[in-house]
Structure formats: C-alpha cells, structure tokens
Amino acid sequence: MAELIDPHSGFCKSNSTFYSKRKPIPLPTNQSLDVTTFISSRAHHGKVAFIDAASGRRLSFSDVWRAVDAVSSSLAADFGIRKGHVILLFSPNSIYFPIVCLAVMSLGAIITTTNPLNTSREIAKQIADSKPVLAFTVTPLLPKLAGSNLPVVILGSDRAPSHELRIVATIEEMMRREPSQSRVKERVNQEDTATLLYSSGTTGASKGVVSSHRNLIAMVQTVVGRFKLDNGEQTFICTVPMFHIYGLVAFATGLIASGSTVVILSKFEMDEMLMAIQKFSATYLPLVPPILVAMVNHAEVLRKKYDLKSLHTVLSGGAPLSKEVIEGFSEKYGGVTILQGYGLTESTGIGASTDSPEESRKYGTAGLLSPSMEAKIVEPESGVALSVNQTGELWLKGPTIMKGYFSNEEATASTLDSQGWLRTGDLCYIDDEGFIFVVDRLKELIKYKGYQVPPAELEALLLTHPEIDDAAVIPFPDKEAGQVPMAYVVRKTGSTITESQVMDFIAKQVAPYKRIRRMVFVASVPKNPSGKILRKDLIKLALSKM
Question: The pTM is what?
Fold first, then answer.
C-alpha cells in the first residue's frame, strides 16, 4: 500500500484516499483505560497546571490530581454517580472546569456542557435530551436551571440560597473530601462514552455528539505532539470557551498531559487577555479570526499599552486567515507565528492543522491532515471519490472521529458511513502537497464571533409568530463578527409588523449571539422543487445590495 501513496499529496490512487503526511500518533493498547487515568499517568516536569487570571489563584499538578480524586470520590460515595450517568457542567471558563471534567470521566460517567449564554428554553431542551442526574454551575446561572429538578453543585465556596433548586454541595466542599481508599472503581473501556457535546444542527435541532475515551486519548496525543510540549515550559492563555470542543479538549483536559500552564479567563475581554499575557509571560494564545483581525487593526495602541514579548505563537481556528492578516500580525507583533487548525465537534476538534511558520505561509489553507487521519474528497451528488485539486465534500476517518449522535440513529447514519467515514459537510479540495482548502460549507451554519448559529433554528422560531408567513435566514458578512444572521421575512396578508418587532421577538428567545442583526421583508422566499430554501440565491441578493 505504502508504495502506492504519493509522498507529496498523500493520495493513494488505488482507494482514492488521502493519508496524513505526519507521523502517526501512538495510542495505548490497554483497552481498559479512561482518559483521566491516561492523562494523569503521563510523565512531565510541569509545576503549575492552572492559574485563575482574575484572582491569581494557582493549582499545581498535584493540587489538580488531589482535587480530581476527592471530587470523583464524593461523586461516587455521596451522590451515587456511576458509569454511564450524565453530568451537566454549565459554567463560564473556570479553574474548576477541568477538575469536574476529569473527575466525572474517571468514573466512566459522561460530561455534557452547555453555553452559559443559552436561554432557559435552550438549556431545558438539552436537559430533556441528555437526561443528566446532577448539574455543576455558578450562582449567577442558577435561575436558568429553575424548573429542571436537578440536584446542583455550586462551583465556588458559597452555598447560594435557592427556593427553586436543590443545592447539594459546593465544589470546594467536595475538593476537601478525603478520597476513599476502599471504593471499587468500575472498569472503564476506551470505547465507553466520555463526553456528550451538542453541535449546532443545520436541521434546526442541535445534536448530541458522543465521543469515547479513545477519541479523547487520541486528541490528547495529537495536541501534545503538535506543539512538542513534553518539556512543560509553555504558558497558554485560555479565553476560548471550555464548554466548546476547542476549549474542552485542549485547555480543560489536553494540555494538562503536557505539563504546560493554562491561564484561565472566565470570558473574552481584549484588555484582560492582553494584561494576562503580560502578567503571566504567556507564550501561546488561542484566538478566533475576528479577534485576531482586531489585534492587527489596533496593533499600535495595544503594543504601547502592553508588553507582549513573551508571546511566540497564536493559534487560530474557525475560518482560514488571509495572507494580509497573517503577515500583518507577524509584522506588527514581532514575528509571532500563527498556526491554524480545522476540526469539528464530531472529530473531537481534530482534522487538519498548520504546525510551522512555513506551513502557515501556504495562505488560505486549513493545513495538512492531522496525524493518523485519513481523508476523501467526495462528489456530493454522485458519491464518487475525487483526486488531487478537485473540489467535493471532505470525509474524515481516524481515531478521533465520534461514535455517533446521541439517541439519533437517523442523523448518525446520514453523517457516519458503515466504514467510519465522517461526512464533514464542508466543500474542500486537497492540493498536490497535501494541504486542505475549505471552499464553502454544505452545512449552512452562520459563524458569529466564533459561535455557530444554525439558520434553521431561527427560521423555525420566526414561523411561530402569528404575523409571519414564511422566513429564511442567511449569513451576512460583517467586519467585526465574521458573519451575522440576516432574515428574509414574508408578512401575512394585512400584517403591519415592523423589522424591529421581528428582531425583538427572536432576541427574547435566544442567546445573544443568535440574534437576528439584519432584516428585509420580501414577497416570497425562493425554494427548489423539493421545498428547500435556496439560501445561495438569497446570499447573492444580499451581497449585491452591499
């Protein structure tokens, strides 16, 4: 087989598959292994694991593992948490986030996360689907769990009084517990479920992505190998949300395996982030493209105000960066390297990446296939696998690909084929050097400031308004946000509803990032013969009026 693979592109003519040009990742052969045990058993020389940027509180590696042991003991003994139970973690970034995740997964229980900006309606929907038995949250978010009947652990040291919720403990109380010496741990297999993260569904309903311990172990190996972190001397700033695949896999769990330090900010705020780089001499900074662009545009002011000389690498994901942005950033911030990555919740955040300044100079690329990853480029209509430099849907296969969608066989069957190939929904081509270029999305998610907004969800809500006959939602380009949701609305005969009334109607029901920011009334929504909205036509129309 190896002799049939083109060393330049990684393409094998005999089976139309692209193979990664990177060295395969080593995976443990012991099948009875959970990701927490795997991470804790990795040797490194790191001292400080996590720093809370706001309070300056530090957790050493031994503090973290002591806390994980205590919390998992408490979960098992005090709350009867067993293998297969689902635990909801509903919180902004926090020093407790990794402790909860690692403790839950060590028992073979399953962690599910949700966006703190989500509304009570959106959270209730996820709770109804995933059926958690316990929730961890912060005091300000308690009202959003009212009516859920879930026992709640407060992330902090103060028990908040609540008439509507059963507060059963605080995380600090659990962390002080003496780990039980006598407890019998259930055997966890690498194929068992570790996380249940919800991806934005293009069909309206978001779907629970089931990832195994093996998926997460492969992700940890990929992350640690990518940044060559075995010396444990690096400091990462974490402003990317830990409830999201990117934050959860890399910053809440993955980097602790390398001995690196992660400085945690509860949310993104430009000045706080830059102050943290200066204060903690950070070396790595993960960002989404709109923030990177803002840093290029305001470089003169920011460089006068902050000392960023410790920073040597910026990590970007979510959308390919232009040549102007990459060169502009490097020029204005003293030769900082920008590395890019491509991944999906369904691939545990792994897919392709640029791992060196030379690779990043291949402008517009998502990078080379990640280690141990295979790809196909498939013609969407015919299902024929294509060759080098031909555009089709990207399919991925490898050790980080999800097990499937939670309790949704139909969605699983339409996304994963019988051989384990994941249909990404992205139109791509792979060039003669093996670099992946994302051309367009078959899935029509709107990317607002790095958040994913499914148009179908907003369309379904618009159609519940008594004065709206039909509606379509599209992405509209925006300098600051990347894209914003724009609605085309057909009024019912005789209706006098205004644009602002429509926008307010949606704003009351969804998280701030999902709000409709632009709106146009139209006589009809263009559709194909089978009734699907012709979004491309509407996008063209919107762009022609810019």
Answer: 0.85
